[in-house]
Amino acid sequence: MNASGQITKAYGWQPQGLWGTDPLWQATLTPGQTLANAQYTFTATDHLSTPQIATDANGQKVWKGISEAFAGPRGKGPAGSRDYLQRGKQ
């Protein structure tokens, strides 16, 4: 939410995902937008439900996860693309 209390990001989850940790999409909303006309990004996850790649509505890659042994995943993409890895920390 922004300072005015308006939602700026929304997330959709796999309904039967283990512990609700399997993200399907992220919507970015500007003031006055609703989910019906928001910009969506779709997520593909690995077997542990960790986001690996995100695509836009045209199927173009906009974010790619980079996993390292003994470390958390990092994101590589345009500014703001780390949102997939920062759920609940904003």
Structure notes:
The chain is an all-beta fold and 90 residues long. It has strands spanning 9-13, 23-28, 39-45, 51-55, 61-66, 74-76. A 6-stranded antiparallel sheet has the order 1-2-3-4-5-6, with no helix packed on it. The protein is globular. It starts with 8 loop residues before the first strand and ends in a 14-residue tail after the last strand. Mean pLDDT is 79; it is low at 85-90.
Summarize the entry for a quick read:
This protein is an all-beta fold and 90 residues long. It is built from no helices and six strands. The chain is 0% helix and 36% strand.
Task: Give a quick set of tags describing it.
globular, disordered C terminus, 0% helix, 90 residues, 36% strand, single chain, six-stranded antiparallel sheet, mainly beta
Mean pLDDT over all positions: 79
Broad structural category: mainly beta
Share of β-strand residues: 35-45%
Based on CA inertia axes, which overall geometry fits?
globular
Low-confidence stretches: 85-90
* Biggest beta-sheet profile: 6 strands, antiparallel
How large is the count of helical segments?
0
String of helices and strands:
EEEEEE
Strand order, sheet with most strands: 1-2-3-4-5-6
Calculate the terminal CA-CA distance, rounded to whole Å: 9 Å
Radius of gyration of CA atoms, rounded to a whole number: 13 Å
Query: Which range best describes the helical content: under 10%, 10-25%, 25-40%, 40-55%, 55-70% or over 70%?
Result: under 10%
Q: Got a strand count?
A: 6
